[in-house]
Design a protein that fits this description.
This protein is mainly α. The protein is built from 9 helices and 2 strands; from the N terminus they run ββααααααααα. A two-stranded antiparallel ribbon has the order 1-2. Helix 6 packs antiparallel against helix 7 and helix 6 packs parallel to helix 8.
Length: 291
């Protein structure tokens, strides 16, 4: 028996109560699971809200159609389809930003359109990388794409910091493992591109860390507020880019490679939607200041 003074994730205290060790372990485990469940459910609402915008926003309907078609095309390695639909991902998001441009400052519009524009160019480079005929050609396109997306990440970071992002050491440390693993795989498999892609990976990790800042979500923020999707957006970007590296290294010309590419495209599309929606909401002016 344990004379317990316990505080679980739910905030329940047991003071001076005789509790069997097995019961105490069960309590702690239950609280941990409940905390993880609540955090998981917290990101569902902004995703559902982002998808639901398709009912009132034609550009969001275009985005969802393009994202679906792109994922299927990636699974089938259909270059013709990808060439048509991949640019529509960022174009549709930019159309949405153009619709709401008067609700933001000129500086914030410049950052948002700059970030999405860099991604649009990067998408074209990555399309060339996917279907390159030689390793050297693939590496060349990958480095160009990484540069464009590094610009995207830098502009997104600048916008988030401008609106109060305060990244924490805990969030940074949580992401260092994936950064280290990516660098090890890259160094072991292709040292020719190690330096530029390692720098890009650092920029990606920084962006993901900044988007996880608790300060971006004020108290009493509604569950379906787009800002609640920023952290998932950053993590989805990390997952997508990590899979690109593993596809190039381990899944060349296989069924697994097609599945990996479908994952890359689906998680990338999710990331861009959540990040753009969240940053758009973050930059929104008070109603009295909207132009």
């Amino acid at each position: 028996m344990v004379d317990a003074l316990a505080l679980g994730a739910s905030g329940r205290k047991l003071v001076g109560v005789q509790v069997p060790p097995s019961a105490l372990l069960s309590l702690v485990t239950t609280d941990s699971l409940m905390g993880a469940l609540k955090k998981s459910l917290a990101v569902v609402a902004p995703v559902r809200a982002a998808i639901a915008r398709a009912t009132s926003s034609p550009e969001r309907a275009l985005y969802l159609a393009a994202a679906t078609a792109l994922t299927v095309a990636g699974a089938k390695s259909s270059r013709r389809t990808e060439v048509v639909v991949k640019p529509l991902i960022m174009v549709s998001l930019q159309l949405g930003l153009a619709r709401t441009r008067f609700s933001r400052s000129d500086a914030d519009n410049a950052l948002l359109f700059g970030a999405t524009g860099a991604s649009l160019i990067g998408d074209w480079y990555m399309l060339q990388e996917e279907f390159a005929s030689t390793q050297a050609e693939s590496d060349r396109w990958l480095k160009r794409g990484a540069l464009c997306f590094a610009v995207n990440h830098a502009l997104m970071i600048a916008l988030a910091l401008k609106h109060g992002a305060r990244p924490t050491k805990r969030d940074a440390l949580m992401r260092l493992g994936s950064l280290a693993e990516a660098k090890l795989v890259l160094y072991a498999s292709n040292r020719e591109i190690f330096v530029p892609i390692a720098w890009y990976s650092a920029a990606l990790t920084a962006m993901s860390t900044v988007m996880a800042s608790p300060s971006l979500i004020p108290a009493e923020t509604p569950a379906d507020d787009p800002r609640r999707g920023l952290e998932l957006g950053g993590l989805s970007f990390v997952a997508s880019d990590g899979m690109i590296l593993h596809r190039r290294t381990f899944f060349k010309d296989t069924v697994a490679g097609s599945a990996a590419e479908a994952f890359v495209l689906a998680s990338y599309a999710l990331a861009q939607m959540l990040l753009v929606d969240g940053l758009e909401r973050l930059a929104q002016l008070p109603q009295t200041e909207a132009r």
